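chain below, 516 aa
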Amino acid sequence: MNHLTETIRHVTLDGEHLRIEQVVAVARFRARVSLSPKTFARIDASRALVDRIVAEGRTVYGISTGFGEFSKITISSDKSAQLQENLILSHCVAVGEPLNEETARAMMLLRANALSKGNSGIRREIIETLIGMLNKGVTPVIPEQGSLGASGDLAPLAHMALVLLGRGEATYKGKRMSGAEAMEKAKLPTFHLLAKEGLALINGTQCMTAIGTLAWYDLNRAAALADVTASMTMQALTGLLSAFDPRIHAVRPHAGQSLVAKNMRTILKDSPSMAKNAGLRVQDAYALRCIPQVHGAVRDALAHVRKVLETELNSVTDNPILFLDDESVISGGNFHGEPIALVMDYMSAAASELSNISERRMERMVNPALSNGLPAFLAPDGGINSGYMICQYSAASLVSENKVFAHPASVDSIPSSANQEDHVSMGTTAARNFRRIVNNLYSVLAFELMAAVQGIDLRKNVELSPAQQGVYQKVRAVVPFYAKDEEIHPMIAAMNVLIRSGAIENDVKTMLSDFH
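prediction:
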């Protein structure tokens, strides 16, 4: 886990400065949250503007009209509050397994931050209650399927909003219960919504952005882990350092490519064995030789998507939007998830490629025709023992599954609301697919690292760098040398726990300040 993220104990929301690591700190590590006093005046003024609009009988979408195709129908001021509650009750149509707790928490955090900008017309007490739910551990039960990604994540966010109304379901202190019971136990208020407030709660991209932000963080970690794992495979396969020569990368100066090449030089430079490999062959196969180019492209993709996500974290994504300077209320399309949908598909391709090249490196280690002298399937007594033969099968299955999930969701659209909403993003589907691929990627990297350490032991005379010795010891603490066939699944499970813990890449970064 990222040391910086774990040390974040408190996050203050102002609608402007929320960062990915802060989202993870709140969602995953339960950092406390507060609302910046700097936001109070704008939030209160935007609520007052809505009240004036209702009092004056102005025709404004979602305040004095219905929604979507029903925007043609005017709603009287005495029914504006009922309109908002009906919106939540009719839109909580999501299905499937619930989002995990950290994703639901991220959704609440992102919605509170967007509302804190003061362009949505919601009461400050509701925003503060969302924050109170985070701090006290009331987490709405939100089914994960059912969003088109425009007009935002209506269905998932409606399930989130239900709990604020004392409805729906939530978890509290590890138990699932009604939303009303959870809020009562946590001593938090529930609300009858006023004009505009239902729309303010559910018209946004917070589900897709929450899923995508957490998955981005995990892919960013996996990218560093992939460099560490690849360095161990270089040892098992007697790879050549020449492919990481800085002169190669200087003449094709992609930032990610240069960073990964530097990482490989950094972690391998103090290994006597790597120096001895120089004369073994002219060049390595692509899965080794092109580590900087492939892993580096993933790093560049991550850098680009960080900017997109952090822009979205601090954006107003509901409709209509209130502007206090001239009291304009403008109906637009900021709820459309296309900016997130496209980069989620981009991230899916990047994560899939990291898993592809990892599996190819593993294949080289288990294939005696490709391993530069290792025993077939890394089995000391092959034939009676299968060794790591079927580990590669499992990795290949995960990689193939990733190719299915990497099909871009954003290229699909289906009209809704009587064709008023005639182009949608499918951004939440894209984010969910990305999350699945990242989870599979960790398992593929676990298989590769297990195989690499087995290969290192089978070579017998490999002299690792100091940082690699630390990696080796961590792996061997949970996965013993596989001398003969025995039940291997507990080792795989232990390796998956280790590789997801963050201990490996964090230790390398601690030892090597130049490793990123």
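The first strand starts at residue 10 and ends at 13. The longest helix spans residues 427-459.
thats it, cya
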